Amino acid sequence: MSRVPNEAGDATTELVSPPLKKPKIDTEAKADAEVKTEIRILLQGEWNDPEFIRQRDLYWEQFEKSEGYDIDWDNLDYNFPAVKFEWASDLSRKRTNQELLDLCIKTAIDEENEEYGTNLELVKYVSANILGVQGFFFCITFWAQDVSSPNPEPKLYQAKVRKFMDDIIVHDFRLRPTQEQWG
Fold first, then answer.
1. 94 lies in the same domain as 172
2. Which CATH number covers residue 178?
3. Which residue in 37, 72, 136, 172 is deepest, having the highest Cβ count within 10 Å?
4. What is the mean pLDDT of the chain?
């Protein structure tokens, strides 16, 4: 703090604090935090509401066609059995949601590597949908590459993984089918 001179040039007793410094903002961390804190309020549907019926039919068509992996959540406003991973509340008492998702992906990749002698490594998470069952059922899409392959180009994989109590169980692991393969 310092003394500020008055108009006559004499020192006054008024004290002034130095200006506050603005904290540095890590823009990438801020963007990540905004993505992770995405909150979506989903509506409860009325069985006779035409808009709910239209969206329910769209949801089930996408869910069945993609086997739970690919749902266009931007066009759905109602609460359905599955939910986008980023919207899920606390899924575990021991881990954050992200830690749990990472563990599910790692377990799926480790089991695939062990069973088929591959050396897959995660490249990038893409998306996940979650169903509440006894525990949680994850339908996860991610990029991975087989670093032992002569052509280690990343490929799009999908895995269905169930988390029940402390167990992680892989139910399916596959290359993501193309739209043509889905029909």
1. yes
2. 3.10.450.10
3. 136
4. 82
Q: Residue length, the chain?
A: 183
User: Taking every pair of C-alpha atoms in the chain, what is the biggest distance, in angstroms?
Assistant: 87
Backbone phi, then psi, for 54, in 5-degree steps?
Answer: -60, -45
Task: Name the strand (E) or helix (H) holding 143.
Answer: strand 135-146
The predicted pLDDT at position 15 comes to: 45
Task: Count other C-beta atoms under 10 Å from residue 176's C-beta.
Answer: 17
Contact 135, 171 (CB under 8 A): no
Residue 167 has pLDDT above 60, yes or no: yes
Q: What range does the domain containing 114 cover?
A: 86-182
Tokens standing for 22? 């603005």
Whether the per-residue pLDDT at 93 is higher than 80: the answer is yes
Question: What are the backbone angles phi and psi of residue 105, rounded to the nearest 5°?
Answer: -65, -45
